[in-house]
Design goal:
By secondary structure, the chain is mostly helical. Helix content is 76%, strand content 0%. It has one domain: Four Helix Bundle (Hemerythrin (Met), subunit A) (Up-down Bundle), CATH 1.20.120. It has five helices and no strands.
């Protein structure tokens, strides 16, 4: 995939536009600005299944990000590219399902555990998870657009590797914390 899919001089602009649009959609759904009538009415079993599917997507994304990271360290560029594109697809799928459920049920699910656990464990972990996910969005767009706008040999002259390492680290932490949030809300309590 050495073809230029994105004009090189537009990477930063496209990153900004995609980030603003993506975050506007996320915050609109999370803030209750998207009416329930905007999404097809799901069956109860579908709504109940989404958190379990999302934790599987998160665990799979952790694996694919790790594969991609290890592949590039070995110089296996094609494996790296496939793993990271797969990771991005898993992230988009996760986010789509999460936002669909959020809009369909009219807001976030309540935490079923004790108030102390909610305040001192669950909420801080959730906040860090969400913060890292939000920070990752422009970083992921940027490294993806860099990769799509240049031949592989030219990526070494960009910030792709430096920002990609940072983004992958934050992404791994965010996905891992998301699994902890799931365990607290659906397994432990």
């Amino acid at each position: 995939m050495d073809t230029e899919f994105v004009p090189r001089e537009r990477v930063r602009l496209l990153t900004a536009v995609l980030s603003v649009v993506s975050l506007a959609v996320v915050f609109s759904a999370a803030g209750g600005r998207v009416p329930q009538s905007a999404v097809p009415a799901p069956s109860a079993w579908v709504l109940d299944l989404i958190p379990h599917v999302n934790v599987a997507l998160s665990a799979t994304a952790i694996v694919t990000i790790t594969i991609g990271w290890r592949a590039i360290r070995r110089g296996a560029v094609v494996t790296h590219r496939r793993a990271m594109l797969g990771s991005f697809a898993l992230f988009v799928t996760f986010l789509g399902l999460y936002l669909y459920r959020l809009v369909a049920i009219g807001g976030p699910a309540s935490f079923p555990g004790p108030e102390r656990v909610y305040l001192y464990v669950y909420l801080p972990i959730l906040a860090i998870h969400i913060f890292l996910a939000v920070v990752c969005i422009p970083l992921l767009y940027y490294v993806l657009l860099l990769a799509l706008s240049r031949p592989i040999v030219a990526l070494r002259r960009t910030a792709h590797a430096r920002i990609g390492r940072f983004a992958a680290t934050l992404w791994l932490i965010s996905f891992s914390l998301g699994i902890v949030v799931y365990l607290l809300g659906y397994v432990i309590y």
